[in-house]
From TrEMBL:
GO molecular function: ATP binding; protein serine/threonine kinase activity
Species whose genome carries this gene: Prunus avium
UniProt entry keywords in alphabetical sequence: ATP-binding, Membrane, Nucleotide-binding, Transmembrane, Transmembrane helix
InterPro entries: Kinase-like_dom_sf, WAK-like
GO cellular component, as recorded: plasma membrane
Name of the featured protein: Non-functional pseudokinase ZED1-like
PANTHER family registered for this protein in UniProt: NON-FUNCTIONAL PSEUDOKINASE ZED1-LIKE, WALL-ASSOCIATED RECEPTOR KINASE-LIKE 21
Gene Ontology biological-process annotations: cell surface receptor signaling pathway
Residue spans crossing the bilayer: 12-32
Amino acid sequence: MYGYLDSNYLATGYVTTKTDVYSFGVLLLVFLMRREAVDRNSGHEELTKDPKLNVSDGQIQIETIADRKILEEVRGDEQAQQQLKDFLALVLLCIQLKTEAGPDMIDVAKELVRIEKSILP
């Protein structure tokens, strides 16, 4: 469970509707990076604390985040690359430190559907 809990919950012990959004965002990040939420080999470093996710200008490149196998699958397919970028943007909204400013789960679900439909003929 550690690694999936947002800092607001850890600080207050209160569960909000945004607590699940954060945890779901971590799960999506696990899928995207193909890494565990907590790296037990590096002193329990949390995936959301990965320095690649903290870019000051807000321009995080999908190529530095996504697993290499995922990137290989979308290489040359502009629609799939855009879908992957939209997926990363959604993940970053879900795992932001100020969880109360994040999206509601219904909005996350709607965005996932929009992303899925964006590549369908």
